[in-house]
Amino acid sequence: MSWSRLARDDAQLRVFDGGSGFPVVFQHGLGGDEAQVRGNFPDEPAVRRLTVECRAQGESTAGSTRPFSIAMFADDVLAAADAHGARRFVAGGISMGAAIALRLAIYHPERVAALILARPAWVDTPAPANMRPYAEVAALLARMSPSEAKVAFEASATGRLLAREAPDNLVSLLGFFDRPDPALTATLLGDIAADGPGVTGGDLAAIRVPTLVIGHGVDFAHPLAHAEALAARIPGARLAVIPPKATDKAGHVAAFRSAVATFLDQILPSLESSS
After folding, report:
1. SS3 118
2. Average pLDDT in the 129-141 region?
3. Which residues form a coiled coil (predicted)?
4. Pick from 40, 38, 53: nearest CA to 6
5. Residues 69, 66: Cα–Cα separation, whole Å
6. Longest dimension (CA), the chain
């Protein structure tokens, strides 16, 4: 396995390239990093995994280009695939990473051999209601100190709702208040919460590659209804409903890995024979 740096505009992106076999480009969620992917990705079957830590996340720098967007991150991922010689690959990701993968499949269909959409936070519209808590965190960070903003968010109607109905989401959101650059974090969260993958229902219906969608309940940020909608609208897509992360983290991770491993086991023989 190896790490490298990729210059994009004035940003420096950290890229993981590990394993051998058919390439799988798998992306983290908003505010995540390669470790999030590593913690959920199966050890088998043998594949070559590439993960780009998106701008202002992990150990990648932010650069000066604004706004941050899913389109920007998708372009960065494609540039990393080019730099690493991955001409055709399985595209996948978690949450924001799923949106990046979906955009790649629609805008660059010649590059994407299969698709894995895990815990999707978007379907085909920008700024969905489930992303509003991220926008609220961004707004608080933009006008308060991190400690004051954290207290205000926990006490807000959204904070109380998440504490009752999606505690795992609340823990994740509270972590943003502890990041080292509050202004940058506010910009990142605000920009992405207002964005979307830039696709239409017609685009979804036109996808013609094997697709796995993974969803679960007890998750305000990643509604099971989003996973169900994508699976229903992408022809031939398979839906895997796994245990909620909030109530059974070990079972969630095991089922996530199993779903991805089973899907890859089923599609890799044909992909490898055609490559």
Report:
1. strand
2. 98
3. none
4. 53
5. 8
6. 57
Helix (H) or strand (E) run with residue 12 in it: strand 11-19
Are 261 and 49 a contacting pair, CB within 8 Å? no
Q: How many CB atoms lie within 10 A of CB 232?
A: 12
Give me the mean pLDDT over the 22-40 stretch: 98
Q: Where are the alpha helices (DSSP H) in the chain?
A: 34-40, 70-83, 96-107, 132-143, 146-155, 157-165, 167-175, 182-193, 201-205, 224-233, 249-274
In the sheet that 2-8 helps form, which strands lie side by side, from edge to edge? 2-8, 11-19, 48-53, 23-27, 89-94, 112-118, 211-215, 238-241
Q: What global pTM score does this model have?
A: 0.98
pLDDT at 274 over 90: no
Amino acid sitting at position 123: V
Query: 115 near 210, Cβ under 8 Å?
Result: yes
- pLDDT score at 35: 98
Query: Please, what are the domains in the chain?
Result: 2-126+195-274 (3.40.50.1820), 129-190 (no CATH)
Predicted confidence (pLDDT) at residue 1 exceeds the cutoff of 90: no
**Contact call for residues 97 and 117 (beta carbons, < 8 A):** no
Reference 138, options 194, 83, 98, 93; nearest CA is 194
- Average pLDDT of the chain, as a whole number: 97
